[in-house]
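Thread: quick sanity check before group meeting

JM: Hey all, I'm pulling together slides for Thursday and realized we never actually wrote out the predicted structure for the chain we discussed last week. Dropping the sequence here so it's in one place. If anyone has concerns about the input, flag it before I start.
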Amino acid sequence: MTEISARDRKSTKGVNPKGAALAARVLELVASGQASSRAELAQLLGTAPSTISLTVAELVERGLIAEEGTQSSTGGRPRRVLRAGSTDEYAVAADLGGRHARIGVVLPGNGVRDVANVPFEVADGPEAALPRLAEHLEALAQQRGRDRLRGVGLSLPGPVDVAAGAVVLPSRMPGWNRFPVAAWLEERFGVPAVVDNDANCMAVGEQSVRPAEHRRTITVKIGTAIGAGVIIDGNLYRGATGAAGDITHIRIESGADIPCSCGNTGCLETVASGAALVRILHERGVDVASTEDVVQLATDADPEATRAVRRAGDHLGRVLAANVNFFNPDAVYLGGILSTLEPFVAAVRSQLYESCHPLATEHLTIERAILGADAGLVGAGLFALQRALARALGDTAGDGTDRFHTVAAPRKG
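JM (edit): ok, ran it. Output follows.
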């Protein structure tokens, strides 16, 4: 993220590819806040402390990592604290919904500032909606210091091809299919831009504030729709074609005849999402028009809404149980507006304990996302900062390529 001189670029050509890959992983862990010392890096990467120290020293020399202060240790000398780039550098990010966007400034190490909700009509299409969103993000950048802006990140409510920087065949984003969102943002702001699926962004944001020992997690976003992000060994896992975590369209018996947006019938989304709850309650004569209306009724202990919410949580729990038994994660994190309802969370938790093998739940953490509504925003911003760091590292290595595999593969679902 720090500007690299032409002399520095020339002097670093021909860097050992293995060394560059290790440097990229070190940058990723420091930028995301998962590691803040050489000792933590050595433990997480399974690499000799001497090798880590050499890599960190090279990154410090290039200006990509800085050391400051100390933190307590369990013995020996106090550890120097590592951070990515300058404390003044940042990304602007947005977590897009159907009718609004949550925007803010994301700092290296997962700090978030100046968070606000702004109007955003996804139905207007990218040509109309993106310029209005860009004005809000530009205002944040001008307030923070435009010259220190290093990246722009967007969390999108649809399937995303990350390599192309575009949404692919979204069911609720008319006019967005294959529109080059990332390229548009890069041209508008003049800095690296990243777009990704909202569940992936939430998973990465939440991972950045969770204990280091939680290296295998499933983060589920339950709002108008449902999505999940999978973390393996501390990294976002996309799968062979980018479809990892797509639990939305798993078919369940009780929804067999209900049509889904994907073209099939009986998907999880048709019985457990916010949109499904609106439909179910409306059919039962309850006056609701949005997921927010459902949440408000359930919060006020409306019997019909509470029963529907519990049933939705039970459906999600059954689907998650199969994934927990197969994947055996350290934790399941629940985010999105429905996760704010205790009856929903309790139903998910109860179904997991009832349906999973005892070994799978013996040490399983099942909690709401700590970052709450900011998880997706933080994840999008961290992606942008990592992309900026990767490009800076590529520049110093003389090839200009991105090396962070967490933002390099396409994502569907």
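AS: nice. Confidence is low (pLDDT under 50) at residues 1-15, 396-413. The longest helix spans residues 303-327.
JM: adding both to the slides.
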